[in-house]
Structure formats: C-alpha cells, structure tokens
Amino acid sequence: MALDRNPAPNDLSAFWMPFTANRQFKQAPRMFVAAEGMHYTTDDGRQVLDGTAGLWCCNAGHRRPKIVEAIQAQAAELDYAPAFQMGHPKAFELASAVRDMAPEPFEHVFFTNSGSESVETALKIALAYHRARGEGQRTRLIGRERGYHGVNFGGISVGGIVNNRKVFGTLLNGVDHLPATHLTENAMTRGQPEHGAHLADELERICALHGGETIAAVIVEPMAGSTGVLLPPKGYLERLREICTRHGILLIFDEVITGFGRLGSSFAAEHFGVMPDLITCAKGLTNGVIPMGAVLATGQIHDAFMTGPEHMIELFHGYTYSGNPIASAAGLATLETYREEGLFQRAADLAPYWEDALHSLADCRHVVELRNMGLIGAIELEPIAGAPTKRAFSAFLDAYDKGCLIRTTGDIIALSPPLIIEKPHVDQLVGTLRDVLNALD
Ligand code: PMP
C-alpha cells in the first residue's frame, strides 16, 4: 500500500456507493459540497432546494449553528468513552431528553447508530422479553409487505421489499408478512385514507395459522416512508394494536422516518393516538448530522429484564458506539433546536398549505396517485410499460438540474422537506415538479 500517496480528488473508483447505480453515477456524478438551511450547494456552485431533508433526516435544516457548536465542544472535551459498564453524562442527558419528548409509556432509551441497528435491537428486545417472562416459544416475527426496516438480516427479513431480500439467501426463519396498506381506491385522498382498516385483520389469519402464542412481535412503520409514503388507513393501527394485545404480541413502530416531527408531533404514535410497545428511531434524532439511533421501551418491557441478580448484565446486546459522546451532544442540540423553534408544531401548521400545494399537481401528466400527511408527500406516476422506475428517475434527474432535490422509489416521487421550510420554498418545489412532470415522456 502506498501510504505516502495522496488520492487524486476526482478519483471516484474506490467508494462503492450504497443503494446507487455506481457505474451510471460515476459517469455523471452529482456532488454536494456544502449546505445551509434549506439548500445544498453543488460542486459547480448551484443551489439545490432540499425537498427530502437529506434522506428524511435533516428535520431542522442544514448546518445549524447550535448543533455544529455542540459537536465541536464535545469533540474538544470528551471524544469517546466506552458504553459497556461505563458511562458519560451526555448519553444519560440525551436519553432523558428523548424520554421527555416521547409519549408517556416510553420510559427507557437504548442507543444504536442507525435505523437498521435500531430495528435489530427492537426485534432482539422483543424476543428476549418473552423469554424473560417464560414465554420463550414466542419466536415468530411479523412484518409487512412494502415495509422498510433497514438492511441488516432481521430488518430485511421482516421488511417487504423484494429487491432488498432476493439475492441474500434465506434470511430469518419464522417470519410472516401482513399485506401493504395500499389500496388504489384511496388514490387521491388528502391525509389519512378512509379505506383499508380491514387489512389489519390479516394478523388474525396469521395468528390462526401459526398460533398467536408463537408470535413475538409485529413490526410496522406507522406510515411506510421508503416504499412511497403509504399511509395507515383510518382505524388500521388501532385494529393492529387490539389484535396484538389480545394475543400477547408486542407491537413495534418503526419511526425512523416519522420520529421527531415529520407528521407534526414528536412521534407518529402520538399523532395517531396508538401506542406500540417499542419504538425505533434514528435520522431526526441528531438531525442526520452524526449517525445515531435509539429504541424506546415502555417501563413494562424494560422492567421484565430487571429481575435477575443485580451484578448480571440484563441484556446481552449493544454497540461500541452506543451513546457516543459526540452523537449524544449532537442529539441534545438537535432536540433543543426542535423545541426552541417549535418545529413540530410548525410542521403541523404548514401541513394544510403543503397538502394543497401537493394536490395541485393532480392534473399533471402521468400522475395516478397523490398522498400526504404532515410534511411528507408522494406523487405516484404511471410507469413506462416495460421500464419500471424509469419515468420517476428521469423526474429526479430533471428536478436536480432545475434546482430541487426529490427522492424516488419505483415510480413514486417522495417529498419530506426540512421542517423549517417556508411557503415560498413549497411553491418553488411544487412549481418545479409541475414543469418536470409535464415535460416527462
Ligand atoms: N427503518 C425505516 C422506517 C427507515 O426509513 C430506515 C431508513 N430509511 C431504516 C429503518 C434504516 O435506517 P438506516 O439507513 O439509518 O440504517
């Protein structure tokens, strides 16, 4: 290895990029070199309006001074401390701050470094919880079609995205899936769809098939983000909760996207008024600035582990960087920013404007469905016959050239701007999309 060699700045060959068409990207790279507030700056000096909060994570917008300063100060004071049998104050402070922001039954916070790790952690806590209570036969996990729960083995097993699963072998045993909460009869609904609560009844069928007493947990995104903003129909989550409770099954909400204000309240659980037993989060926890995730557990779940001898480790699980000091400092500054600026309420207040703007695209070319809630939205396009994903990806490239960052999944455009967005930004985003959609083949 040539340790003395500086790599050429324009050498793109070494970085094997995640979830990217690498060969195509490297022929025509799109690079951001700076960011501030609602905008990215490209390497050729253009401003791009952030319509996706990075990857659904920069809820307070970019390069927020309070967060930058907190990270700098923490790095200069305590850079790293082990989290096993040792502690440091910032992690405890952040856990309390997350608990205080969460709905009431959530009293304990387990730190991870990503959404994927939060999912693995929650699934493991669910399995170990049942075993701790003498119900070790509960080993089955139930996910949902079109669910995204990160990329680790547990997450892709309970997840329901074919491309994320099919080349990786047999995955976890004992997993079943509910149907996705997507019905075309809800196509142009504003906010929460009317039809589809009955889709939760599939859980009864799965319980009848396997025996409800063999199921450890059901994991769902209260609102599925990554597969195109699929909203829970009215009554659906309530029904899921009721069936889980009746069969002694834990309900996990994966709130990696919906956590920290996206729907106008701290967590979707609060927004929908349905309480799961475990919540996973990440992304908005640190405004996306430093990798960090968390699992929120109710007192009941946590306390089931606290029954053995006091010198024994209660849960054999954790990460080298769980509660990392710099990530904790970033998290504290992020939550303070959300609170001081009332950003969750701001999202709720702006939601009607956002909804109207988004639904003004109903008559654009190729639009077959529009979905929205809080500050999130989706525009579903008619796919090109024989070339799925192509139409939406063309829209992504054109929007980028026209100065807006959007995200696509299949033939769906997903939008989730930072919660600091102003009405003129909404107008710019939607105006650009109108031009982009009407110019599409
Ligand atoms: N769960 C959900 C609901 C997500 O949206 C994501 C990321 N988009 C993840 C888990 C995985 O998070 P990460 O990429 O941080 O591992």
Automatic annotation (TrEMBL):
SUPFAM superfamilies: PLP-dependent transferases. Keywords: Aminotransferase, Pyridoxal phosphate, Transferase. GO terms for molecular function: transaminase activity. It comes from the Bacteria. It holds the Pfam family Aminotran_3. InterPro entries: Aminotrans_3, Aminotrans_3_PPA_site, PyrdxlP-dep_Trfase, PyrdxlP-dep_Trfase_major, PyrdxlP-dep_Trfase_small. Its cofactor is pyridoxal 5'-phosphate. Belongs to the class-III pyridoxal-phosphate-dependent aminotransferase family. This is Aspartate aminotransferase family protein. It comes from Tropicimonas aquimaris. The lineage of its organism: Bacteria, Pseudomonadati, Pseudomonadota, Alphaproteobacteria, Rhodobacterales.
